[in-house]
Amino acid sequence: MNFSHFLRNFLILALIVSSAFIAKSSDAASKAASKPDVAIALNTWKAAVESGDLKEIMKLYATDAMMISTFAQAPLTKRSQIEDYFKLVLANEGVRVDILESHPRNYGDIAINDGRYELSYVQEGEEISIPARFTFVYKRVGSQWIIIDQHASQMPDTREKK
Q1: d(Cα 41, Cα 39) in Å, to the nearest integer?
Q2: 103 and 117 in contact (C-beta within 8 Å)?
Q3: Of 44, 45, 104, 158, which has the highest C-beta tally within 10 A?
Q4: Would you kindly state where each structural domain of the chain is located, as residue ranges?
Q5: pTM for this one?
């Protein structure tokens, strides 16, 4: 076997190995790219709330989702209670959610996002802003993150009491 024949076989083998490696890397990259990003789920929720479209909001919640909300005394354990809660929120003008801080973490098909937001709206002509902290727990269903549990509570007043 002469050197040029050896070099040709070596190059063909290298091409086959590198093609397999590139195909496997490309496969992994496309799987990662198609994997839902839980950070986007919070922005999807924000957009749905700001749209005022109750149906769009409720599409983001599992049928057995639970919520501990800023305004309700007891946990909302039924879908109809969550829907009623959002009806009350959306009855206000100009509902807006400003995300102040977000810490998404993914654990396979379950994800958690904690942080802070400010809920704003107009009530009887007055601008109301409520700084709140939140925890969303999501489950991946197909290509979407669905909310299975939500806790939002008004930030405590840290000013000194006189």
Answers
A1: 5
A2: no
A3: 45
A4: 1-34, 36-154
A5: 0.75
Backbone angles phi, psi at 110, to 5 degrees: -120, 140
- One-letter amino acid at 81 equals Q
Looking at the domain that runs over 36-154, which CATH code has it been given? 3.10.450.50
Residue 82: pLDDT band with limits 50, 70, 90: very high
User: Contact 44/56 with Cβ under 8 angstroms?
Assistant: no
